[in-house]
Structure formats: structure tokens, C-alpha cells
Amino acid sequence: MSWLIFSLQALAFCFSLHEFLGASAFSVSGNETDRAALLEFKSKVTNDALGVLGSWNDSIHFCEWYGVTCSPRHQRVTILDLQNLKLAGTLPPHIGNLSFLQKLDLRNNSFTNEIPPQIGHLRRLQILYLQINSFDGEIPASISNCSNLLVVSLALNHLVGKIPSEFGSLSKLQFLSTTANNLTGNIPSSLGNLSSLRGLSLSRNGFYGSIPDTFGGLKNLVNLSLVVNNLSGTIPPLIFNISSIQTFDVGSNYIEGEMPLDLGTTLPNLRIFSITGNQFTGSIPPSIPNATNLELFQVSENNLTGKVPHLERLQRLSWFIIVTNNLGSGGRDDDLSFLCSLTNATNLERLYVNNNNFGGLLPGCISNYSTTLQYLLVDNNKIFGRIPSGIGKYVNLQRLDMWNNQLSGTIPTAIAKLQNLGLLYLHGNKLSGIIPHSFGNLKMLIQLYLSDNLLQGSIPSSLGQCESLTTINLSYNNLSGNIPAQFIGRSSISVFIGLSNNQLTGSLPTEVGNLKNLEILDVSGNMLVGEIPRSVGGCIRLEILDMHGNLFQGEIPRFLAGFEFLQDLNLSYNNLEGMVPTKGVFKNASAISILGNNKLCGGLPKFQLPNCGVKKSKHRRLTVAMKLVIVIVSGLVGLALALSFLFLYLVKKRKAKNNPSNSMNSLLNLSYQNLYNATSGFSSANLIGEGGFGSVYKGILDEGKTIVAVKVFHLLHHGAFKSFIAECNALRNIRHRNLVKVLTACSGVDYQGNDFKALVYELMPNGSLEDWLHPMTKDVEADEAPRNLNLHQRLNIAIDVACALKYLHYDCQPQTAHCDLKPSNVLLDADLTAHLGDFGLARFLPSTHKQTSTIGIKGSIGYIAPEYGLGSEVSAYGDVYSYGILLKRKEQIMSAISKRSNNKIQFMKASDNFGADSKAKESLALMFKLPDGTEIGPFTYSPVDSVAHLKSSVVSNWPKDIANGPKKAKYVDLFKGENILPDDMDLSDMVGAHYSEEIITIKVVLRSPSNKNSAKASRGVCAIL
């Protein structure tokens, strides 16, 4: 018995030992299998850009290799995670030997070839991530053997064929994605058996047929995406009963039918709903607002009709896109009422209602949306009304489309506040007014379309400040004026410039040559003149050039034949002449049009132009000796010219040391910011004068080297803009030492987006003649003696002003009347040389004397010619009268006249200077604009009699050659009514050296008045012969 027991114990020990040794041998064998499979995987990797597989060697256990995770008990590989490592190669079949593998993650690498079917051996596999690689071939049906799979993602590869129907057996599968492959065929109905499925994405393939009815049984489905396939038929009704659905996207297929009316009720958890690009009919379900979690609603490009329901409850809505349907009635007032219901959507980013049949008035509530709005598209409807200015609050707006409607009114300047705006489309409306100058503040603007409207005015030069602009179309408007060089030279414009069918004039600026990458230039249908600029030759990438219907002249530039990308050239109906090139685009008669240029010749025979005549030389060939003589003479002349230029340069350089005007060239292009900084923000400390239309500030430019006077126009004052234009027109071509020199003009926008216009002059350090004749108390320092002008200085100033008027009236073209001559407009430089300024009321003199004044009295009361009060024509004699008053002015009278608070009281004070002379008082009353019939002392004022008297008292003292309209000035005559200078006084020393070459005669003409007082009325008359 004891032997038997011993034998049984021995047998049990041996069995246990065998079992232990067998298990150990199995574990060692399994570990070696995993190691060998990993090394085989490494051997198939052809590119390890990051070197992560360098650790896969015998120096450490394979469980410590990068990306490898093993089970703690058996040391078997359970996870292989090599995502996002830029690996390239193939996946070997040995991967199927990792029998304990639960997760394989190779996403976002560059693996190629087929997915090995041996993956089906991985019975423990739960997660398979192979997306974003380059796998090809078919999906292995053996994957269905991995019965524990939870996630299968094969998206973004090159897989072909069908989805294996065997996938329907993966009962635990929760997520399946084959997005962005080349799969075809019908979607297997067996996928409807995946009762655990929560996400199904089969988008961007070639599936066809209908959506399987079995999908209605996917009760746990949350996300369904079938976008961009060839699916047809209708959506199985049971799908709309899966209340767990949050994402429903079947866009870009051929699905038809109608949306259920209770869609928003049966899918209460809906967050994303998209059926865009199908063939749905019917209306938008009125129950949609019940899906209160809705964030994206996209039903564009279908055949939907009817009214859009109100959407107040959709407070989480971010995208509302109903583009390209037949929604709306085309004119009913409540068509757009749903837009106001979206004001509750605090996260609204995109609102697309374009390409529909909406009509009615554009509601102002579109300016009440959340400032999160980025895209607003209402184009291609029948909407009318004005664009609300409140739209300027959308600081995040990137695109605004309102084109092809019936909008009217002006373009709101508030649009310039949209600093992130990249695309602005307002074309095809009835917008009027001007293009806002403040559009230059749109630094992010890429495309601007304002064509097909009723816009007027000029093209703002500020558009040249749009740094990101690539495309602009202003065609088919009523724009006029020149094309701004700053705009046409914006080098960022690389796609299209459309300025056709406007009323633009002038020449094409040479700055167009800056458009090196421009593809299309269309300036047709305008009134542009001059030659086609040579600088167009810099636009080497032009594909279309249309310049027809203008007044261009000269020859067709030869460089056009060298434009290798030019496909369409239209130069028709201009005044071009000369030979038509025969190379490049000119070799293709169908690619060019040159009709209506009657002086062209040559070119292809298809053009049927006359041959170009060859001019033969009438001179015999020059001999060698003659050629040698010409060369020697030309060399000597060239040497002489070079020495002359060198001498002049040295002289100018020496003078430039003390000449502040040398830095003026840098002032030719000044912006609002330059002037703002130069005048310390237009501070009151820099204010040196004020007038009816503007204020004058002292400015410091060029890092303190240049001191200027900046005249800023108050554009809100009536007539200020006309004053600016008048000064610009008057100062454009006039140059004289006794006129204030204008350095540049600034026309732009200020920091608030308002129009800004200013003129920059040389600063006159000694102020105006008014300051010297009547200095204000605040202008005189306590310890400083009052400034006075001696006789010599006064005479020089008088002659300076006379020379300025002589130039204006006779020597400049066109001849100009200043119309506002007074002491405050006579400015004095450092040497007390007088310079006439302020041409805000200047007028060009008419060629005939039939033009009368229709804008009232021109000038300042006290200096104005009295005949202007009755509408007489503008003439040089008006300036002559003002000049006489300036010379003979009395301080008491003029001080009273300049204060206009109470005309009658001031008149009474001023009239004391005339004693009992009633005629003189009548003349004075006219200056004060007293009403007809006003009682002034012993007589009653009548303006007609007063003008007649004052005019006769002036004209009666003019010499006959003045009254007959002299054509050339030879003398400067000073007329005066009292002997302040002896008749025989020698003035050669007093006048100064700069008049030594002129013949100056001062005549003293004494009027023989009936009494002393009446003589005062006619004193101060000056004539320039």
C-alpha cells in the first residue's frame, strides 16, 4: 500500500513538473514570436525620419522599445502605437503574429501597399487605426474575424472595392470610418446589424444606390456622415426616429424627397444637420426650432420653397446656410422676417441666404447680430433698401456679399471699420454717391467689387493703402477724374483691375508698371488720352488687356508682342497709328482687336490694313571724313555740356546750404499721419491763424529741418470744399516770387474716417501785414517794443503786392483774379518780402466781359469792389480796388469793418471819418451790407445809388489805357489822394536792388474834389498797367 501511495505521489510530481516546463516553454516561445514580428515590421520600414526605431535592438527588452507596450504578466505585446512619426514602408504579414495585440495605431504616416489579411489573426484586437496613410487595394474581409473590434478607421487612404459584407458580424463595433477613399458599390445592408454602432462615416467615396433601410435599426447611432457619394433614392423614414442622432450629414449626393415636418421634434439632440447639394423639395420643417441644440443647419443647393420659420429658440446656432434654393416669395414684406429672429443666436458666425427668391426691404436688424459674425451673404435676391450703417460693428466680419439686389443709397463709411474684411461684393445694385475715402483703412481687403452701380466722383487714392488687395472691379459706374497713381500702382493687385465704362479722363499713370503679377487689366470705355505708357511693359504676366473705346494715341507698343501669357488684346476704337506688330499675340488674329484705328498699317493680312510706306533717305551716304567731323564736334559739345552741368551743380550746392527749400522734394507725398505728427496733433499751441474755411498750423517736417504752414480746411463749413478746389486750381500752374509757394496738398481721411484736406505752404516767419499794422496785444511781449514798418519797407511791400497782381492778371495762364486782397493775406518772409496768399476765392478771368457774378459778393467787407454787390463780372479791376483800399486804409475804419457783430453800430463809428459827405457814407454802407432804406444820419441808404457813386469815384481816376483794358503792364502806378511823397522823390534807393531792372514810375494823381471829405471816398485806387 505504501508503495502504491509513493508511486502516485511521484506520478503527480512528474505531471506537475511537465506542466510547468511546458508553460515556461510556451511563454518563451511566444515572447520570441513577438520579438521576431516586431523586427520584421522594422525591416519593412524604408524611412524613419525621426529615428524612433533606433531603440529596437538587443540592448534592451523589446517591451521597452519605442511605441511598444506589453502585458505585465506574460510580457506579450498588447499595444503598438507609432502614430504621427513620418514612417514610410509597408505593413508585413508578420503583424498577424502579435496574437495578444489589442491596439494597432499607425495613423498619419506614409505606409503603402495592401493591408495584410493576416490582421484577421488578431483575435484580441479592439482598436485599429490605419487612417491618413497610402494603403491601397481592397479592405480584407478577414478583419471581420477580429470579433472584439470596437473601432476601425481606414479613412484617407487609397482603398478600392467594396466594404466587405462580413463587417456586419462585428457586433461590438462602435465606430467605422472609410472616409476619403475610392470605395464603390452599394453600402452593405448588413451594416444595419451593428447594433452597438455609434459613429458611421462613409463620406467621400463612390458609393451608389440608396441608403439601406436597415439603418433604421441603428438605435445607438449618434453620428451619420455619407457626404459626397453618388447615393440616390430617399432617406429611410426610420432614421428620423433615432433620437440619439446628433450629426446627420448626407450632403452632395442625389437624394430626393422631403424633410419630415416633425424633424426637429423626432431628432431633439440634433447638433449638425446638412443635406446640401441634393434634390430635396418641400419646405424647411417648421419644427426645426425645437432642436434647440442645433449649431449647424445647412440645406443649400436643393429645390426648397416656401417661407423660412422663425428661429428664436436656436440660441446655439453658429452656421445657418440656405443658399441656392427657391425660398421666399420674391416681394412679400415678411420674406426676411426670419432674419430678425436670429438675433438671439449669440454664437452666429455664418449667415448665408443668397441665391434665393427673397424680396422686400432689407431689415435693419441685420446690424443687431452677435459680433462673432464672420460671413454675411444676402446676394442674388430681390432685396431693396439701404445698407445699415450699424454693420460696421462686426469687427470679425471677413466677407460681405450683397451683390445683385436692388439696394440703393450710399455706401456706409462704417464699412471701413471692418478691419478683418477680406471680400466685399456690392456690385449689381443701385448704390449712388461716392466711394468712401475711408476704404483705404481696410488693410485685409483682398477683393473689392463695386461695379454695375450708380457711383460718382473720383476713385479714392486711398485705395492704394489696401495692402492685401488683389482684385478690384469698379466698372459700369459714373466715376470721373484721373486714375490715381497711388491706386493703380498698388503692387499687391495681381488678379484683376476693372475700370471699364466710366468717365475717367487723363492719361494712364506710369505707376501701372508696378503691377508685375497682374493678370487682367480693363480700362475700356473711358476717355483716357495720351500714349500707352512704356511702363505697361512691366506687367509681364498679363493675360487679358482691354483698352478699347478710349482716346489713346501713338504707336502700339512693341513690348506687347513679348507678353508670353497674353491671350486677349483689345485696342479698338482709339487713335493709334503706325505699324501693327506681327509677333507674339499679334500672330493670332482671333486674339486681338484693333478696329477703329484708322492710321494703323501692316500686321497680318487678315487685318486688311494698308501697307506701311518706307521712307527713303534724300541724302547721300555720309563720307568717312564727314562722320569723323561729326564725332569730334559731338564730343566737344558733350564735354562742354558736362562742364556746364558740373558748374551749375556746384553753384546750386553752395546756395543749398542756406536754402530751406532743398528738402521740399521730400514733402511731395504727405499723409494725414505726417501732418498730424508735424503739428503735434493739430494742437492749439501750433495754431497760427484762422479763417472762414480753415485753420493754419505751424508744422515741423523732415526731422526738424523744414518748417511749414499747414492750412487745414473745415470741410463741414459750407464752401470749404470749393475753397480747397479753388486754391488747388489757382496754385496748380502759378509761380512767382511774390506769391506764397504751395509745397503739396494732402487729400485723405483722418483717424475717425472723415475726409481730410489740407495745403502745405512755406512758412512766412514774419506773419501777415495785418499783424504789423494792427498787432494784437497777446502777440506783443511785455518787454518788447511794438513792431513798425518804416517808409522804405512799406513801399517795398506795396511794390511786391503790385508785382504779384501784375503776374496774376497778365502774365500767368489762365489769367486769375485773387478776389480777396487784404492785409491778412499779405504774408512777409524773413526779409519782409511780401507774398500774396489765400486763393480760396480766386477765379479765372473770363475771356469776354459777358460773365456776371452769381454767387454774391466775393472777398472781405471793406476791401471788396462795390460793383460785385450787383453781380458784376469778376475782373482785374476788383483786385485793383482792393489794392487801393489796402494802401490807403485807415485804422479806425478798417478795425470797425473787420468786427461784424453789429453792422449799423460799426457803420456809425466808421462814418465819422467822412464828416458830412453823404455820398461817401452811402459807399461805406454798401460795404456793411445795410438793408435798403436804413436810416443813417441825415440820409437814407439806397444800394443802387451807392454802388454807382463808389464805382464812378474809382473809375474816374483810372487812366484811359486802363479803362480800355491794357494788354501788357509796363508801369506800377500808385494813385493817392493826398501828398505823402514829393513828386520828384528819387525812389531808386528805396525800392531795392531786385527792382533795378524794371522801369518803375510813381505817379501822383490828385483828384479835384468839391470838398476835402468827398475826396476820402475815392482815395486808395491802384491800377496796374
From TrEMBL:
Domain Protein kinase: 682-1025
Pfam families: LRR_1 (PF00560), LRR_8 (PF13855), LRRNT_2 (PF08263), PK_Tyr_Ser-Thr (PF07714), Rad60-SLD_2 (PF13881)
A GO term for molecular function: ATP binding
Localization of this protein: Membrane
Membrane topology per record: Single-pass membrane protein
Signal sequence, start to end: 1-25
GO cellular component labels: membrane
Keywords noted in UniProt: ATP-binding, Leucine-rich repeat, Membrane, Nucleotide-binding, Repeat, Signal, Transmembrane, Transmembrane helix
Gene3D superfamilies attached to this UniProt entry: Phosphatidylinositol 3-kinase Catalytic Subunit, Chain A, domain 1, Phosphorylase Kinase, domain 1, Ribonuclease Inhibitor, Transferase(Phosphotransferase) domain 1
Residue positions binding ATP: 711
Keyword Membrane: yes
Chain ranges passing through the membrane: 628-651
InterPro entries, per the entry: Kinase-like_dom_sf, Leu-rich_rpt, Leu-rich_rpt_typical-subtyp, LRR_dom_sf, LRR_N_plant-typ, Plant_receptor-like_S/T_kinase, Prot_kinase_dom, Protein_kinase_ATP_BS
Protein name as catalogued: Protein kinase domain-containing protein
